[in-house]
Each structure stands twice: as structure tokens, then as C-alpha cells.
Amino acid sequence: MKNTTHYFLQQKGKRRISMLTAYDYHTACTIDEAGIDMILVGDSLGNVMLGYENTLAVTVDDMIHHGKAVCRGAKNTFVVIDMPFMSYQGSAYDAVMNAGRIVKETNCQAVKMEGGAEYADRIKAIVEAGIPVVAHIGLTPQSFNTLGGYKVQGKNVAVAQKLLNDAKAVAEAGAFAITLECVPEKLAKLITEQSQAVTIGIGAGKYCDGQVLVYQDMLGYTNGFTPKFVKKYADLHQIMLEAFQNYKKECEEQTFPAAAHTFSIDDEVMEKLY
Ligand code: KIV
Known about the structure:
This protein is α/β, with parallel strands linked by helices. It is 42% helix and 14% strand. An eight-stranded parallel beta barrel has the order 1-2-3-4-5-6-7-8, surrounded by seven helices. Helix 6 (120-128) links the parallel strand 4 (110-114) and strand 5. Helix 5 (92-106) packs across helix 6. It starts with a helix and ends with a helix. The model has no long low-confidence stretch (mean pLDDT 97). Bound molecules: 3-methyl-2-oxobutanoic acid (KIV). 3-methyl-2-oxobutanoic acid (KIV) binds next to strand 6.
């Protein structure tokens, strides 16, 4: 039985929520088995699955393709799917139609969209259509061109006040949860205390109602830059590299496949073939 938005709202202040990204069936199965509370099919799939430099090229079709695979694996886990760049920025109508397509075609439980008060009308329209929404404020990667890069947000009074106003506006519009990305810990604490929505932090410190990480980052799957807020729970890159190198060596040395990996045939049968 999947949890509901009501359940997550009831947990606020009682139990911390765990969320991880996933983009494929097997990862979703493992996250589901681990009992993680929520899966996010993030548009970060552009970076970590498709090799793009940023998330701007990700399409609704990309999100649906990966979202379907994740939803097939997430038997018990609540799945949120990101609305990609330009799938909601144009109008509330676009937002509802694209959110509706994502839910109808993937069977996910909620959608997530970046932006604050300026997108409150989109959030309200989607929630009124019966689709739960997770908002996303702070560092919003789809706006990195206007933000001037990937930077911590809210370190001065003006931006910190804007984030407080944004959190209030998106919750009033109906978002049941708010992702806080790269926000100073004390500001994230204040937002969490003031908001009726569940805050889910990434680079926002320990006082949020929940945490989210990109699974490749926390598994040490990628070999590149690791953001300050990531804790590596494994070194999957090294494990995979060594396995691939050993496989190559054994292919070359003909020690793989061994008898255990090989099918036999009766000699009598073989003799008749010569
Ligand atoms: O796309 C994503 O993975 C996200 C997380 C960083 C929150 O939005």
C-alpha cells in the first residue's frame, strides 16, 4: 500500500522523510525494498543518465519514459516526477496538461516543479486537477542562466525574504511538500518551522522535514565533481571499474567463461556432426 500526501503531512515534526532519485526499474526496486519513503524521478536524469551538461534539454517524453520504468519497480514507494523545463513555464494550461500526461502515462503519485510565488497559479491549477504537487525553491537548476550559476541561495536578506515568501505562496497554492535546494541551514529551519508543507532538503541542512539525494551521488557512482552537501555511502564507481577491468582481463586470458558458466552437450551428439 502506497503512502499518501496526507500521511506525509501528518509526519511533519514527528518523523524525518527519506527520498532518493531513481530513473530506472532496478534502482526503483532496490529503493523500494530499502523502505525509502519517496522516489523522485528528477530531471537531473539529463545530467546523470543522458550526459547533458544541464537539465534544460530534458523533455516530457524523457520524464515519462524513465518515470514508467520507475513506477513499475516502486511497488510500495510514493513516486514524484519532475516537470521538465518549459513544460509549465508557459501557462497554467500547459502545466495542467503536461502534469496530467505525466500522471496518466506513468502512474506516479505527484509531480514536482521548480519556482516560487511566480508559479503559484500553476501549482493551484494542477492541485485543482487532482494531482499532488511538490514545489522546489532555492537553487532551481532550470533557472541557472538567470541565477548566474549553481550557487547557494538566500544568503542575503532580500533573497532570504523572497524564499520565505515563496515557501508561503507555494504552500498556500496547495503544494504538500517543498524541495529546498542549496539553502543555508538556519534559513531552511525557519522555512520549515513557518510552513505547513513538508520541506525536503538537498544541501539545506538537518532541520528540514526530509532529505533527498541523487542516488548516483550518494553511491559514488559518478567519478566527477561531488557537491559539498553529498555524503557518499558507497564507492560504486571503483567497484564497477574493478569489475569491468577484471572481466576484460578474464576475456583476454580465456578464464571467463569457466565450466560453471558453460552448457554441455553429449559427445555422441557432437561426433555425429563431424
Ligand atoms: O532533478 C533532481 O534530481 C532534483 C533534486 C536535485 C531535488 O530536483
